[in-house]
């Protein structure tokens, strides 16, 4: 796609772009001037029809939808003037609307009204209903994305627009439907990939409720919660006027057949009178006199109660942040405003926080080396608790960069929920020395001594050499730029941002991405830190967003610990020296990558807006986990709370004079891991369901299973007589009529043919021909699958075709009849196996009975065949000798009649024999089909049992806190790392229900408190929303060999959404305020202790420190904020909306003084000085710099 469009260009000759109007999941819309000076809207659909990229399906889907609706002509359906494909890109020229219904709602709400006045809204609803009914009644189409932003206002009338999801009812496809629907307005049936002629009516009723009251009937925060509510809960219609509730409830019925016959009928039901308000009823300012019943207004609505002068009088500028782009006039700016602050006021500036402000933004998290991997895992764990399944939050991207040859094996280490995925890895291994000899050797030797290059170990590990770490990155620079470009495009894609907002319930603050780089200064990977930072900055400039914030977090080891190896200490000093060197704006950073013709970088200043140092007091695993916990808590709140807005302002303040570019922070949290608790409980429930479904025995068949079994066994269509009729009827397809009836009619007509043949010149010839024709049609004996083709008659072959069609039809019908077994509670596989075994036995019994009957035809067939053969031979003998007339008439005539009679007898026997044979085959093959079902069930049981075993493994495992000595990495012994974030530590106090200290045990206690009717309800919901769309349990096992992501993941996510409404959101501030014996003094002491525990990891001047406390925006939160202010008057409280389950005390340390840095690095100086004097041990990443700016004097 073309990411950068410019005004005054002409994508279609004669159509000049003016300004962008909005963006959405399927494309962006611009205002344009068409030939003749007429204003139009032009939509650029994402994706290229000539490529196979990830977005191409959007263009294909939109084009298919346009093919369906381009013939639609109606005054209340937005007209399309032109559809063009330019270079594979789909362009749609359409009417330019004044605004959307969503914009009109915002206008009224800005005047203090809760929604659009009822009389105005009813007229607009009538227009929309007429347009939607026209689609279904005249063209058999459903819109499937009815929402306020897709109903446009033009000259005070509504027009239905945006047909990207339109489906034809008779040719509907059940694939791909869920990918584009807006879950807030979606009908229940769409969540199971089904639609009906009343689907749009449901969406219209949801829309009416929101437009009138300002509140939606369901308050789910993400698609899974909304799916549950739409499918199983009653809508909240309490804000509607009493007369409207019954009609809206009917239009929102779960069963589509229970809704109104049409959208217009629904509107008539809520109207109860004229559809439009009489102009005489309007006041002088344009507001309607008659108002609906009292409706609860928003607490933050303006006090002004006036209304817009006219509902659609002016062109409104829509935000266009969610959904499909709207053809309405709006000019947006991609780059957020940046307020410059004096360099000496970075920490003293006023930072205010408003809970209603947006917090979500695109983010790229880049972890470098082993530390980066562990840090990303901890961040993912905290984000998992905060926002849910991270695969559903595509605007947050992860890149793990490592030069270690073992990095691909380590990428998936840790708990499954928090582990990185293989796709997250960017592997940049070193090459053998010979590889560099063949490529860009001269360029490498400009900055790397030959001795360093030849010192590459055979293991191809950097072994702590920062120069080799930089060499590896330089070798893979071009690949990294391509990967980074892809991640930025993906994170900033409007659909990714919109989906992330819908999933998390967080509002969008900006679409400008933020980049965070997590690295260790003590290892060889720190050598690539500056190059990677400038690569990020360069790529952001290519996207025309050079001001996007880039922040680095640098792990600084444990300089004060005497067990820290000298090599680590020298690397730390060298890393900070290089960062400080290039922070000088007069120092240029120059580099070239990829050989003499490769890209060059020439920049000044650090690429990072802020650089945070993360030192440890001691070189122990516990201290290392505390450091990771500090970082994970800090970043999670930076990304998902208003704290991020304040921190970004502080970081942009610059470096005060006389200070270093390095900062610090410290955190302490009181965490109620509600999200992880819900996931643990959901996982345990899913395991319970899987164990139940795969149980090998069922005590007794459920009533539904008995009913299905009896229905099949007693179906009269499965009796042998009806099977014969059905097979013969199916055999008639593609031939001239029913072959059995045709053969019988031919045999009955032989007598007349014999009379006619007696008067011909060659009567014996007719007899021989009739017999040959009989054998051609019927063969000489019953045929089976093993028979040779030349022995088969035409009737037998025709019946074989009928048999195959009959079996296909019955297998399809039986599949549907057995489908309700997939919704059985408990051991559904065992119940299905019981039924299938009984059906196999029934098929075997019917087959045996039919084969006995078939065996009885053998003697009769032989006799009939011999008699017919003898009759034919006798007719030939009569013709060859003796008189042809006798006492009782013509002898040849009698012979011919005998031939006709004997052939008819043989034909009757053979027809019955073939019908009996094909009936026996029907039962045998049907039994084989059931046996295949039985094998599939056994395979599914084995696969699902293995899945349950894998899911039973604890998601979060206990860790150890042993001390590491002897020069060992502080994090080398424990690969999991993440689980320890759930244990109380020096950085966090974990609060779990029921007084438990173990997550899984607490989740088990939670499940024990569930009402008994809730698990069965969840079992049914999982079946309908997760299992059925994947083809049932058996279908899922056959469809994918990776059941964990294919089945287990969606099951846990859906179960988590279900449990969310059952587990009350524990307010941590209430827990703190209501703690036993906690008087005012106790609370103050506790707050003071938390803030002391949040001391920055690296200390600096007190005047450069700010304290923030994140707490819920609730009544208890406000009370707790008062206590915080009493204990620490200088602290800034940050109210956070939504399901906030933790408190975070954060102390932000401003830029360090040189003395502060010297105090931290003094233990490193001697090791650095000794290493720097020897070329082999010199810790610097590049050697083309002859004099580094001194870090400390």
Unreliable parts: 168-179, 273-346, 784-790, 883-889, 955-981
Q: Architecture of the largest domain, CATH level 2?
A: 3-Layer(aba) Sandwich
Mean pLDDT: 81
Strand content: 5-15%
Q: How many beta-strand segments?
A: 25
CATH level 1 class label of the largest domain:
Alpha Beta
| Structural domain tally | 4
Report how far apart the termini are.
Answer: 53 Å
Number of helices: 37
Radius of gyration: 39 Å
The SS-based structural class is: alpha/beta
CATH topology descriptor of the largest domain: Rossmann fold
| Largest sheet, strands/sense/barrel | 11 strands, mixed
Query: Rough shape?
Result: elongated
Q: How much helix is in the residues?
A: 40-55%
CATH homology superfamily of the largest domain: Tubulin/FtsZ, GTPase domain
What oligomeric arrangement do these chains adopt?
single chain
Keywords: ATP-binding, Kinase, Nucleotide-binding, Serine/threonine-protein kinase, Transferase
Region (Disordered): 277-337, 960-982
Protein name: Serine/threonine protein kinase
GO molecular function, one term: protein serine/threonine kinase activity
Account of the 3D structure:
The two termini are 53 Å apart. The protein is an alpha/beta fold. It is elongated. Strands 11, 12, 13, 14, 15, 18, 19, 22, 23, 24 and 25 form an 11-stranded mixed beta sheet that branches. It has a 5-stranded antiparallel beta sheet with strand order 1-2-3-5-4. It has 4 domains: 1-98, Phosphorylase Kinase, domain 1 (2-Layer Sandwich), CATH 3.30.200.20; 100-314, Transferase(Phosphotransferase), domain 1 (Orthogonal Bundle); 363-653, Tubulin/FtsZ, GTPase domain (Rossmann fold); 702-780 and 789-952. InterPro entries: Kinase-like_dom_sf (IPR011009), Prot_kinase_dom (IPR000719), Ser/Thr_kinase_AS (IPR008271), Tubulin-like (IPR025904). GO terms for molecular function: ATP binding; protein serine/threonine kinase activity.
